[in-house]
Amino acid sequence: MKRTACLAGLLALACSCTQSVKTVTVDPEAETLGTKGARATFRAILKDAQGQRVMDPLPAQRPKWTSSAPLVATVDETGRVTAQKSGEAVITATVGELKAEGKVKVSIPATVIVTPATLEFKEPGKTASLEVKVADDAGNPLAAKGIDWDTSEPKVARVVGGRVSAMAPGKAVITATLDVIRGQAEVTVKSGEAPVFHKLVVKPTTAKLKKGSTVKLSATALDKKGKPVADVPVTWTSSNPKVAAVAAGAVTAEKKGNVKITAAAGKKTATAKVTVK
To answer: By the 8 A CB rule, do 88 and 105 touch?
Structure first.
């Protein structure tokens, strides 16, 4: 009888020493994961009625973990969360009738789009900027941070932070990479040769000058529809510089006589007649 009473007393003493869980909180309150398979650990903090932390809970006091969206993020029995696809999930720790929650947001980059997709430079020495749009696997836009830029032909086109510099005629592919996702743009650099045009027109077509005076001639390149073509380099010559010299279209009368002033661009020419009295 005494032995039974002693055993009962020991059990009562042990029970009185066991802390009763009154509150549960989850730490951290929220986590963000940016890649498939990324992990984070949530912890359940248990406290008794006096606000003291329960450091060694009984098996029945250990939290059970659940995820509101296992397709987005799973959680194991220790509170470790694993990202599956983009979205949001609530992670719940349950101890008896007590519950606490933490939130996890998953944003997994799925597409990197470079705009414009094609870029053309008329000549080396020019620059232009490319932009990047990033979206997750649910189609939601993400911040384009941490983009790595590269070029397939650095001798043709270089790129720094999305800024492309044309170096030499040719073609290159510019690649923007975020983790293992990439987007590309094609770059073409032209040689900068004279544009194609149909004919040259010189105005005025005739001029009369006194010795020592000057007249300014203009040469205009026209396409087949008669519209001006810009940036066509023109060279000027005089049939007799001793009578009248020409430089950049400006004719200077030197002595009496007749002279023909010619404007040339490629294989096309136009002339004006100048008389010096």
So the answer is: yes
Sign (positive or negative) of CA dihedral 189, 190, 192, 198:
negative
Average pLDDT of the chain is 89
3-state SS, one letter per residue, for 130-171: CEEEEEECCCCEECCCCCEEEECCCCCEEEECCEEEECCCEE
What DSSP letter does each residue of 111-128 carry, written as one string?
A: EEEEESSEEEESSTT-EE
Lowest mean pLDDT segment, chosen from 119-123, 127-131, 177-181:
177-181
List, edge to edge, every strand of the sheet that includes 268-276: 206-209, 268-276, 257-265, 235-238
* 9-13 own/partner pairs: CB under 8 Å, 24+ apart: none
Once rounded to an integer, what is the mean pLDDT over residues 198-202? 92
**Measured distance CA(91)–CA(82) in Å, rounded:** 11
Res 21 pLDDT > 50: yes
Q: Give the Cβ contact number of residue 124 at 10 Å.
A: 17
Amino acid 126 reads: K
Residue-wise pLDDT for 73-103, tens only, equals 999 999 999 999 999 999 999 999 999 999 9
Q: In this structure, what token pair is assigned to residue 7? A: 């055993």
Q: Nearest-CA neighbor of 100 among 30, 49, 25, 29?
A: 25
Query: pLDDT band for position 18 (50/70/90)?
Result: low
- Residue 38 predicted with pLDDT over 50: yes
- Round to the nearest angstrom and report the end-to-end CA distance of the chain: 150
CA–CA–CA angle 189, 190, 194 (5° rounding): 155
Helices (H), 176-253: none
Residue 246 near residue 232 (C-beta atoms within 8 A): no
